[in-house]
């Protein structure tokens, strides 16, 4: 049995002793060795459970309920050994599906030629006088030179010919017949565009004939049970037995579920999806294909591949047409991946006039600067604070998450997703809150939060919210109430986590501007990509110094541009070809090799425009 997250914290396993763990509410049962952690058992059983810290016991996000005759108990799954048969209730997953999937919008006109086509054929029937093989008669009717039949097409052909009296539809990709279908099905030609994010996976079902997006869906990247960031997942892939296989199967399982959901929603059959495009950061691309990512972690951060990869869906076990063509778009560098290529495609940064900056704010923050026909990019390890991880009451943008905060003379105004009782705070709310706390003097520019005994100059409605959480100062957002036994608070540690994330992003921006010789007033546009970028308040981002000091009207949200780029590459062969040109053209700036990065990072720790 392999070593799993949290297992290293457990006592020695009893050899040969196994216990049954039942995960509720889905009643998934799993026999595991005595001593294995509940988190490891969940991973083994394929149960979705968060573990942003990788089972180190530091984040508290893997809390589950043990249901026993003597009562119920909330525990941390990574710190709880299986030492008896257990009933484990998994908290209802946070549903942040629609927020991000709605953002995969496309506004770039492209040549609608996906490379996949369907051709209707009438194949002459055989006779005693003309005993010609089905494949030969089919190719004769197709009347194209140098076309080959895939094994899938060869197997489907005899039955298809006889089901519809020789009327068939051939699905072609370039010079290969992928499959053959009975009757005229030429109007049913579909593709799938997938954006594999470190936190969220988004899939779009597209009509390849019309270029129309029929539906989008998203789900959590369930690899998060092994850690919130790419480094934790690289460690799991390289240091755990079958770790790489586990990570690949996790992401494939998510995609299969999204395909099933999209098919059910639209009435499209899964086997009518004939082409797939995939974007993601370089680590996600490697894990999707089960390519060893070991050399991404140490300097000089070398990927196993950078060029576009093409393969068949059946090689991955996707629930599309088995012969569906899968394209994994090219990466730029070890930590700047195909998702950045997708952003450039969707925003046409390489074609825009003037000076344009694109920022994808997230765990693996990616920054692109385009100016005067040149493009520079870098990535910065902002950490998962913007995604709500490593924050005491942080959560994804789901029902119950505080997404906007305003402090007025009357006190604290909270906007909560779903208009429900607040359960925690997501990234956009966190940025708003800290910006407001700095503005009102509750948090100093250095990041220090006032203590409960301070703040004499504050209005009473704010001063009474100053408290202590453990050994540090805190600010109460919502008092304990129905369905919540604890106050929702922002801690001093939370502010420090946000400072580090903000400083990493801003330092990366400063390095790119310095490299290109660009000053703030030269910037014509700042584009915010990704779900966080779409919902973040640009005035809060400016006030905190997350973004450079430009006029607010220059800042524009572009939604899930990476996913939109994947859709463009799906419907247009020329866009796929252009993606390879972009990957070659972009100049990657390696921040770890810059002697000035640390100075810029330290300067950016100030929670103002202090640079």
Automatic annotation (TrEMBL):
<dbReference type="InterPro" id="IPR042259">
    <property type="entry name" value="Raco-like_middle_sf"/>
</dbReference>
<dbReference type="InterPro" id="IPR027980">
    <property type="entry name" value="RACo_C"/>
</dbReference>
<dbReference type="GO" id="GO:0051536">
    <property type="term" value="F:iron-sulfur cluster binding"/>
</dbReference>
<dbReference type="InterPro" id="IPR043129">
    <property type="entry name" value="ATPase_NBD"/>
</dbReference>
<dbReference type="InterPro" id="IPR040506">
    <property type="entry name" value="RACo_linker"/>
</dbReference>
<dbReference type="InterPro" id="IPR001041">
    <property type="entry name" value="2Fe-2S_ferredoxin-type"/>
</dbReference>
<dbReference type="Pfam" id="PF17650">
    <property type="entry name" value="RACo_linker"/>
</dbReference>
<dbReference type="InterPro" id="IPR052911">
    <property type="entry name" value="Corrinoid_activation_enz"/>
</dbReference>
<feature type="domain" description="2Fe-2S ferredoxin-type">
    <location>
        <begin position="19"/>
        <end position="94"/>
    </location>
</feature>
<protein>
    <submittedName>
        <fullName>2Fe-2S ferredoxin-type iron-sulfur binding domain protein</fullName>
    </submittedName>
</protein>
<dbReference type="Pfam" id="PF00111">
    <property type="entry name" value="Fer2"/>
</dbReference>
<dbReference type="InterPro" id="IPR036010">
    <property type="entry name" value="2Fe-2S_ferredoxin-like_sf"/>
</dbReference>
<dbReference type="Pfam" id="PF17651">
    <property type="entry name" value="Raco_middle"/>
</dbReference>
<dbReference type="Pfam" id="PF14574">
    <property type="entry name" value="RACo_C_ter"/>
</dbReference>
<dbReference type="InterPro" id="IPR041414">
    <property type="entry name" value="Raco-like_middle"/>
</dbReference>
<dbReference type="InterPro" id="IPR012675">
    <property type="entry name" value="Beta-grasp_dom_sf"/>
</dbReference>
């Amino acid at each position: 049995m392999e070593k799993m997250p949290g297992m290293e914290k457990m006592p020695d396993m009893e050899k040969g002793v196994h216990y049954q763990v039942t995960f509720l509410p889905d009643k998934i049962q799993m026999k595991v060795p005595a001593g294995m952690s509940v988190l490891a058992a969940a991973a083994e059983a394929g149960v979705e459970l968060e573990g942003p810290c990788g089972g180190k016991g530091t984040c508290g996000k893997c809390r589950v309920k043990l249901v026993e005759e003597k009562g119920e108990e909330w525990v941390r799954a990574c710190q709880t050994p299986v030492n008896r048969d257990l009933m484990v209730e998994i908290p209802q997953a946070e549903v942040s599906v629609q927020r991000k999937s709605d953002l995969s919008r496309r506004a770039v006109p492209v040549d609608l030629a996906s490379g996949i086509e369907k051709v209707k054929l009438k194949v002459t029937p055989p006779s005693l006088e003309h005993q010609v093989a089905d494949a030969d008669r089919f190719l004769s009717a197709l009347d194209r030179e140098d076309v080959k039949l895939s094994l899938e097409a060869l197997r489907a052909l005899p039955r298809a010919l006889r089901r519809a009296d020789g009327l068939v539809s051939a699905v072609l990709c370039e010079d290969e017949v992928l499959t053959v279908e009975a009757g005229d099905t030429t109007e049913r030609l579909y593709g799938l565009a997938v954006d594999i994010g470190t936190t969220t996976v988004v899939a779009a079902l597209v009509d390849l004939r019309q270029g129309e997006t029929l539906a989008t869906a998203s789900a959590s990247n369930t690899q998060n049970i092994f850690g919130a960031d790419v480094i934790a997942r690289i460690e799991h892939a390289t240091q755990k037995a079958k770790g790489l296989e586990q990570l690949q199967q996790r992401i494939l399982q998510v995609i299969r579920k999204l395909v099933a959901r999209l098919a059910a929603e639209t009435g499209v059959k899964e086997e009518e999806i004939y082409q797939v495009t995939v974007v993601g950061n370089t680590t996600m691309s490697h894990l999707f294909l089960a390519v060893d990512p070991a050399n991404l972690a140490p300097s000089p951060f070398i990927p196993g591949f950078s060029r576009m990869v093409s393969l068949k869906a059946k090689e991955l076990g996707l629930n599309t047409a088995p012969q569906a063509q899968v394209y994994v778009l090219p990466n730029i560098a070890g930590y700047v991946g195909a998702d950045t290529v997708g952003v450039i495609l969707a925003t046409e940064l390489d074609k825009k006039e003037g000076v344009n900056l694109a920022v994808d704010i997230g765990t693996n923050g990616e920054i692109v600067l385009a100016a005067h026909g040149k493009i520079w990019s870098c990535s910065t390890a902002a950490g998962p604070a913007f995604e709500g991880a490593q924050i005491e009451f942080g959560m994804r943008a789901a029902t119950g998450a505080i997404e906007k905060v305003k402090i007025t003379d009357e006190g604290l105004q909270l906007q909560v997703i779903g208009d429900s009782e607040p359960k925690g705070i997501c990234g956009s709310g966190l940025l708003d809150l800290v910006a407001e706390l700095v503005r009102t003097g509750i948090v100093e520019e250095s990041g220090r939060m006032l203590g409960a005994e301070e703040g004499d100059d504050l209005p009473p409605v704010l001063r009474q919210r100053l408290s202590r959480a453990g050994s540090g100062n805190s600010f109460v957002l919502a008092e304990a109430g129905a369905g919540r036994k604890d106050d929702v608070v922002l801690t001093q540690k939370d502010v420090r986590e946000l400072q580090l994330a903000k400083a990493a992003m801003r330092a990366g921006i400063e390095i790119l501007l310095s490299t290109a010789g660009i000053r703030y007033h030269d910037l014509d546009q700042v584009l915010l990509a990704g779900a966080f970028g779409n919902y973040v308040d640009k005035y809060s981002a400016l006030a905190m110094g997350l973004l450079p000091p430009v006029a607010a009207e220059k800042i524009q949200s572009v939604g899930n541009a990476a996913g939109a780029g994947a859709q463009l590459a799906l419907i247009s062969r020329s866009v796929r070809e252009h993606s390879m040109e972009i990957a070659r053209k972009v100049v990657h700036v390696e921040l770890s090799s810059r002697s000035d990065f640390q100075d810029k990072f330290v300067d950016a720790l100030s929670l103002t425009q202090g640079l």
